[in-house]
Amino acid sequence: MRRLGSHRIHGKTGGAGTKGTVAKLSIGVIVLLICTFSLLFSANIRRDPEPTRSSKINVEELWESKNFEYCGRVLSLQPPSAPRSDWPPPTEETNGYLRVRCNGGLNQQRSAICNAVLTARIMNATLVLPELDANSFWHDDSGFQGIYDVEHFIETLKYDVKIVGKIPDVHKNGKTKKIKAFQAMKEHSAIYLTPFSHRLAEEIDNPEYQRLRCRVNYHALRFKPHIMKLSESIVDKLRSQEHFMSIHLRFQMDMLAFAGCFDIFNPEEQKIIKKYRKENFAEKRLIYNERRAIGKCPLTPEEVGLILRAMRFDNSTRIYLAAGELFGGERFMKPFRTLFPRLDNHSSVDPSSEELSPNSQGLIGSAVDYMVCLMSDIFMPTYDGPSNFANNLLGHRLYHGFRTTIRPDRKGLAPVFVAREKGKTAGLEEAVRRVMMKTNFGGPHCHTDSTVVGLGR
């Protein structure tokens, strides 16, 4: 009986509890529904103005230097490449000589020089001034001494590595004897590395080594005074009417062949590109539509013009083109020039330059292009995949003050331009702006822990 009574008491309590629970659940459901409707309503409010937001790219702000207050603090303008831990100077006696030959174009060579200095530091070796390959790309024998300020290079890095102009001659039995590479390596502790470009990993888990790379790239590698003077003269002429933008128009045969972007060309042009690819790159099956969809194809000159027009740059914008010989020539340039007629390059800005006329496509011409792009108010690379020129400049401009950079999202823009080619032109500019609004225009971006990316801090 006692047991039965306790069950009855338990049953009554359970019934009351059930009613209470149901009541609480009902209130919870009502609250949940209210929250859900509130969230949907606020999401719609945020979503509705999006087209208006996408049209608010402020061109005037893009022309200005970046505000240095980011991530909740003001950034120091002091270049962050100085050593911050124990960094002893090179020893009087090193382990030998390091001699390198840098292949590729000017900016691939520039990256190789940074790696050569770091390699010499790691090996405690004396670096012989790097040799620049004269044949594989530029057919230009200017060499390191013809492009860079050698005295400045050695002076800037004197606390990092020992540098000499050449391996010393050997005096033996009263005779002077030049050391060949293999003799130097075996008998005199010297190493000759050729070709020397990507011999070191990009990511090295030692901040001081990365800072040394920055010191080389952004401080020690200064072009010779006459190149700097010529570049500044061109910038002054371009700035004589306020702002100017520089564009690295990467639409040359080598890059198009590398990327596997053939289908926009006529059969004869395709034959030329495919032949170049077969002779210079490993065989690989490349499907144009797939390559383009993932952003692997360089933008055409016309697409560059459409992006700028969608961003509200007008046709009075002065544009400096850093570009080699464009594949397809005037057929591809004409639509761009129609949209933006004020196009210049180093030859058209200063046609009287005796310095550039014989070397407009050589190392000096590339050096001038680099400096003009570095000093421009806005820089826009049209292909920053395996592009040493664009990537070096992106880092250099970031390092020296967060200057505005427009980096088109080729993957995001691909469906927009494909739709245009199929005749769907309605809302083109709005669609382009919507993609471009997602870029940071060259400013730094913050991690969730409020550190600043790209500063080495």
From TrEMBL:
Pathway note: Glycan metabolism
Major place of residence: membrane
Domain of life: Eukaryota
Tagged with keyword Glycosyltransferase: yes
Entry keyword annotation includes Acetylation: no
Any matching Pfam family: O-FucT
Membrane-traversing stretches: 21-41
Subcellular location: Membrane
Keywords, ordered alphabetically: Carbohydrate metabolism, Fucose metabolism, Glycoprotein, Glycosyltransferase, Membrane, Signal-anchor, Transferase, Transmembrane, Transmembrane helix
Membrane topology listed for this record: Single-pass type II membrane protein
Sequence similarity: Belongs to the glycosyltransferase GT106 family.
PANTHER family, per the entry: O-FUCOSYLTRANSFERASE 1, OS02G0726500 PROTEIN-RELATED
Name of this chain's protein: O-fucosyltransferase family protein
Protein's organism: Brassica napus
Taxonomic placement: Eukaryota, Viridiplantae, Streptophyta, Embryophyta, Tracheophyta
